[in-house]
Write a structure and sequence with these properties.
Layout lengths: L1 H13 L11 H11 L10 H11 L2 E2 L5 H4 L7 H14 L16 H7 L3 E2 L19 E12 L4 H4 L9 E10 L3 E9 L9 E11 L2 E12 L28 E4 L9 E10 L2 E12 L2 E2 L6 E3 L9 H5 L4 E14 L3 E12 L15 E13 L2 E10 L2 E13 L2 E10 L20 E11 L4 E11 L10 E15 L2 E17 L4 E20 L2 E14 L4 E14 L5 E12 L6 E5 L7 E5 L2 E14 L2 E12 L4 E2 L6 E2 L2 E12 L1
Parallel strand pairs: 1-2
Antiparallel strand pairs: 3-4, 3-33, 4-5, 5-6, 6-7, 7-8, 7-9, 9-10, 10-13, 11-12, 13-14, 14-15, 15-16, 16-17, 17-18, 18-19, 19-20, 20-21, 21-22, 22-23, 23-24, 24-25, 25-26, 26-29, 27-28, 29-30, 30-33, 31-32
Length: about 650
């Protein structure tokens, strides 16, 4: 029945002929999908979306941004930033963001992606040098509230193990006052939790309080260098954009607006300008979830899932404290060189249980780091060396872009097995920034066929990992070709191959075998009219396990439809059919969701998934968004495991969000 309804909706939408305005969040979604589509993990955090949304609400001023500030915007390389600054130097200040079209070498595609993150402020007329005053509201308030409900009851509820209701709730209040002052409050409850304030986060910030450039009190994050010591909770490495993700562009201190419940700082931080030497000082005292040994009081693990649904999960909540403090010194030399030095410590209230030879059994960690970013066009050299408790990790590389049509990246990383990473997220395969050595090469080339993205990454794990009890190695290759044969048609072919050694249990013992994964994707996006966009994708995955000749494969295909019947209404729908032999050949799919939500689902087995979403601007300051999704798995008696198990093959849910802007 549901499938028939959905098909009818598709037919109705495809026959419509109305005009619509482009979704203002399309640029952010495009960036996120590029970064997520090669990540094989359902564990995604909305910090990336929040960061892009914050940048959109507080755009970078074209008239005073440095080359390093410009690169905070997605898809802007040092080469592109250099062209913008060169134009500003030769022709004077920008009067409009649309002047980007006058810069030789910047094509319309790039400009379309970066325009939402720019503003033009405080410029002067050439004739009178009189400042042009632009109106700006004194106070801006944004309220976002969201609730998600599952229609199917998990085993944790039927057996009364979950203590709370099955709905997921989210409330976020943010505001700007007089341009320089911000505040925010966030409350979240996961499904099964008893309190609607199970997680709460807050911040207040001020800018331009000379000599203090920025001051934050409450919850915050710090990004430094290339992420080896300090970064956001989730870092993104390899993606279908082969060159730019190699380089991280730190934002320094920033207010925490995400929902990860453990990996942030709570206290105060300040960035001070001392004759163009920027000094950042910070202090934090935060409670963390932990599993504690009842006899020795040692820390066994630090859970980061944030779930407090059962009695056992509640017992782990806020068991220990982490006190942190440190300072950072930055110095920029024109638009060519930026150097940074960092020191910070973390002191835990309990010591750690030492479970292997590379574990740390103390409760205090001292971190030192040095980073550099050197531009000498067409080269951009980057790197960081970080030392924690006398163990050193390094990352060094460069980007080379002689023309707008060709760019190349090269990166070497060395993360020892005994390097302790607490708050960092460096470029790598495992995502742990430890126990990894690797060499990465990426190319992006605009040819007559289209845009080619190609990378090769070779890595080795000197010590055991989660999937291998012995030292192991592997490599990964990706080829991506995006073409535009017609003005309203975009085609894409992507191939990815990965070889990695993993454990396989045999009758005698565990042995290392080569695991090979092949993924092939074909896709075309067609702009039917100004109001209708359609995307179709086919993806095939093949899994092979060494000499065992175990072959598992599967495929997925979907149709996407985005239909905007008016300036006030935006809709999106997707219908997916998938069939894989088992979880080995799982296919991950990023999908559109409510603004601020990131969804990267693993699809395996046999079944269908579809969703429909509508965003309606009731008035200019009020938007209501609704999404209904449904996954139907064939030939199964249940979905999920443990207390999250659902009886039957249907998993459906509905989400409602309200955004109010004053």
């Amino acid at each position: 029945m549901n499938q028939n309804i959905f098909c009818c909706l598709l037919i109705i939408f495809s026959t419509a002929n109305l005009i619509a305005q482009q979704d203002t969040t399309s640029s952010a979604e495009e960036v996120i999908e590029k970064l997520l589509e090669t990540i094989e993990s359902e564990e995604t955090d909305n910090s990336l979306y929040e960061g892009l949304e914050e940048l959109k609400n507080n755009p970078i001023n074209l008239n005073n941004a440095s080359i390093f500030e410009l690169q905070r915007i997605p898809f802007i390389s040092s080469h592109t930033a250099e062209m913008i600054i060169h134009h500003r130097t030769n022709y004077g200040r920008f009067f409009s963001v649309n002047e980007l079209h006058l810069i030789d070498g910047l094509n319309d595609e790039i400009i379309k992606k970066i325009k939402p993150f720019f503003s033009v402020e405080d410029f002067q007329t050439k004739e009178t040098d009189t400042p042009i005053i632009k109106y700006s509201p004194l106070i801006k308030i944004n309220l976002r509230t969201r609730v998600q409900s599952d229609f199917q009851k998990e085993r944790g509820y039927s057996e009364e193990k979950y203590l709370g209701s099955p709905d997921k709730s989210y409330l976020r209040l943010q505001g700007n006052a007089f341009q320089n002052y911000r505040f925010g409050l966030l409350l979240e409850k996961d499904p099964g939790e008893n309190s609607y304030t199970d997680f709460n986060s807050f911040f207040m910030s001020a800018k331009n309080l000379s000599p203090i450039d920025e001051l934050i009190a409450g919850d915050y994050l710090i990004e430094f260098g290339q992420g080896l010591s300090l970064w956001s909770p989730y870092g993104f490495s390899k993606s279908s954009e082969a060159v730019l993700p190699v380089k991280k562009n730190p934002k320094g201190i920033k207010a925490y607006t995400s929902t990860d419940e453990n990996r942030f700082f709570r206290g105060a931080a300040a960035k001070i300008n001392l004759n163009n030497y920027f000094l950042t000082i910070f202090y934090s005292a935060n409670w963390l979830d932990s599993r504690i040994d009842s006899t020795s009081a040692l820390i066994l693990s630090l859970p980061i899932d944030g779930y407090h649904r059962t009695i056992n999960e509640i017992e782990k909540k806020d068991r220990i404290t982490e006190k942190s403090g440190g300072l950072i010194i930055h110095k920029s030399f024109s638009n060519y060189l930026k150097l940074g030095l960092l020191y910070y410590y973390s002191q835990f209230s309990n010591n750690f249980f030492k479970d292997d030879i590379f574990s740390q059994d103390e409760g205090r960690f001292n971190s030192y780091s040095f980073s550099y970013d050197f531009n000498i066009q067409p080269f951009n050299f980057i790197g960081e060396a970080s030392m924690v408790n006398n163990k050193i990790a390094t990352l060094n590389g460069f980007l080379f872009q002689p023309t707008s049509a060709f760019s190349y990246s090269f990166l070497i990383r060395y993360y020892p097995a005994d390097y302790i990473n607490l708050h960092g997220s460096g470029f790598g395969e495992s995502g742990l920034t430890k126990n990894e050595i690797g060499i990465y090469t990426g190319i992006k080339w605009k040819t007559f066929l289209g845009v080619i993205n190609l990378y090769f990454d070779q890595f080795r794990f000197p010590y055991k990992t989660y999937n291998a009890s012995l030292p192991s190695s592997g490599y990964e290759v990706l080829f991506d070709l995006t073409s535009k044969p017609l003005s309203n048609l975009i085609t894409r072919i992507k191939f990815k191959y990965e070889s990695k050694e993993i454990d396989i249990k045999s009758a005698q013992a565990k042995q290392l075998f080569e695991r090979q994964k092949y993924q092939l994707r074909g896709e075309f996006t067609y702009k039917v009219s100004k109001s209708i966009n359609m995307k179709n994708r086919f993806e095939y995955a093949l899994f092979k396990l060494g000499d065992l000749q175990q072959l598992d494969d599967g495929f997925l295909m979907f149709t996407d439809l985005k239909f905007n019947p008016s300036d006030e209404i935006q809709t999106a729908a997707r219908f997916i059919f998938f069939k894989t032999k088992n979880y080995n050949s799982v296919i991950y799919q990023y999908e559109s969701d409510l603004t601020g939500v990131m969804t990267n689902l693993p699809l395996y087995g046999e079944g269908i998934r579809w969703y429909f979403m509508i965003k309606y601007n009731i008035i200019s300051s009020l938007r209501v968004s609704i999404k209904y999704s449904e996954t139907i798995r064939n030939n199964v008696t249940s979905i999920g495991t443990g207390y999250a198990e659902i009886i039957g093959g249907l998993d459906n849910k509905i989400s409602l969000q309200i955004d109010f802007n004053y």
